[in-house]
TrEMBL record:
It comes from the Bacteria. This is Zinc-ribbon domain-containing protein. Residues 243-316 form the Lreu-0056-like domain. It comes from Lactobacillus kefiranofaciens. The chain crosses the membrane at residues 52-72.
Amino acid sequence: MDNFCPNCGKPLEPNSKFCPYCGQRLENELSINSGDSDVKLKSRQGIKKSGIIILFLLLFIVGAGAVGFYIYHNKQQNIAAVNKMPKKDLAGLSIVYAHNHYKNLAWDKTYNEALKGNMVVQRTKQIDINGATITAKGNSYIYVINNRVVFTTDKNKKNSDSKLVLSDGKRTLGQVNTIEAYNEIKKNNLKQLNKINRIRQVPAVPVRKLAIMAALSHAKSNDLEESIDLNLKDHSTDLYNGGEYYRLQLGADGGSATEFKIDGDMVTVKYLDLDKAADEADAPTKKIRIQLQDLLEEYYQTNEQKEYVDKLASKLTPDKSIR
């Protein structure tokens, strides 16, 4: 590194005490080459700028991650909320969505009635309404609201995977995925939806009736009635309290058993799936979880269904722990 005289600027020999050109005293007054100084200054500035850029990148990544997590978490919450709804509660979702999207007197009148607590929902496969006959196809069911408007959805799919097809009987207004409808209503009309879907008291269902409906969820009704009649004839106990699960035993083998339990508004049913095995030993255990309200709608809604379930339930012989 070269030294220069601070007075005249000419180059100096190392360790010089006086400038040989102008006589300037040089102790503690040497000037450093300005070129090296510029390089060091620029280097420091570059490091500082790089640090700021890296900091901003880190903040951006953290912020983007937080936003992404919030969006994912919110989406999962909405899916869970929709899937917990009994099929009948999709009526409220349909009513609010239709009110927001379609100018239709039938749906608007139903909306106003539902806000006042007047809402009756019936499920069927076919109905004559407003001069038209509507028939549900495949696994779909028709839900009739206040005997005026209808929505159709697939009974075997999760709510989050289903579409709501909305109609006033005369024409189909449109269709929407349940999650899409719920996301929209949650942002703008959640108060109205909650008011319409007010808490419903799920009726207490006697164990005997629940046993019949649990068995009907996977067994043919004719086979079920025949097995119950045989047990009744032999005076055999066929309904047991196994602790966590109740067990309806309609034969000597495991394939004749239906286990079930109720937890809040959910019913869990277990049985051996004999259709997927060569014999009972290889049969896998199948488990079904279903809303109690949906189970009642499936097997205990019409007068005919109620009479049938009540008749079979009365023939069961429970153990002493079951009243």
